[in-house]
Design a protein that fits this description.
The protein is mainly α. About 75% of the residues lie in helices and about 0% in strands.
Length: about 260
């Protein structure tokens, strides 16, 4: 393995229990943070922004996402703060983009979830066909990194629409939806430990499922009581989630992923 290969692989964190805990917190943060900008900040400060708040928010978070991905790709080694900042950027832009498509454009949760699911599957299939693998330990070139972040972006957006579809369209509520997605994550974990199913596919299934789980938990925290939420301040919930994520990163330093090759 060349030095360049090791450096690129080292930019991806080792997939451990801590990884999944931070990922779920990051997706919850994406929901509360995205809503704080599009619903609270823009809704309160920009008259008539209801129809454009999601689009404006998507523009803001989209710019942050692109900048963070560029910084991540230019990094020479795994930097936990930069990596998770980029993940959070994908969750926030995923939240606002999904809300814009399903609410402002009027595609609806069902249509939005279906379209985004096709995008995720297409991204993974093109990635697999182009490079021969979708495993995390193969994220070792700029080309693969692009596939990695594009897939993550689609999966985060899908998760928002899917979470809303289960909680609102199917009318299971936020806690009911959280139970559904949490249960599916448990089944995925069992498949990982007790079957020979593709580890790469199981990783992406789990990665996708953490997003709607975080989305419905975020909605549960900040949505009105009349809609089944706790009506907590979006700003306070976002700040608290940031604090917890930072604390976990400091207390439990993460190691870079190691290539299996």
């Amino acid at each position: 393995m060349t030095d360049d290969h090791r450096e690129l692989v080292a930019k991806v964190p080792e997939v451990t229990l801590l990884f999944w805990i931070i990922k779920i917190l990051a997706t919850t943060l994406g929901e509360t943070g995205g809503d704080a900008v599009t619903m609270s900040w823009l809704g309160e400060t920009t008259p008539g922004a209801n129809g454009f708040g999601y689009l404006i928010g998507t523009g803001i978070f989209g710019a942050i996402f692109v900048a963070s991905v560029i910084a991540q790709m230019k990094a020479k080694k795994f930097q936990p703060a930069l990596y998770w900042f980029t993940i959070i950027a994908t969750t926030t832009v995923g939240t606002t983009l999904a809300d814009y498509c399903t609410r402002s454009i009027g595609i609806g949760y069902t249509g939005g979830s279906a379209i985004l699911l096709v995008c995720v599957i297409a991204s993974l299939l093109i990635w697999r066909r182009s490079t021969g693998s979708i495993a995390i330990d193969t994220v070792n070139t700029p080309k693969v990194e692009v596939f990695y972040w594009v897939t993550i972006m689609f999966s985060q957006t899908l998760g928002t629409a899917l979470g809303d579809w289960v909680s609102d369209t199917i009318e299971l509520g936020y806690l009911g939806a959280a139970g559904i997605f949490g249960g599916l994550l448990v089944l995925t974990a069992l498949a990982y430990y007790f079957t020979a199913f593709s580890r790469a596919v199981l990783f992406w299934i789990a990665f996708i499922l953490t997003r709607p789980l975080g989305a419905v938990v975020g909605d549960f925290l900040d949505k009105p009581v009349t809609k089944g939420g706790l009506n907590l301040s979006r700003y306070s919930a976002t700040a608290a989630l940031v604090a917890v994520i930072v604390a976990l990163m400091v207390i439990f330093p993460q190691k870079p992923a190691q290539s299996a090759h």
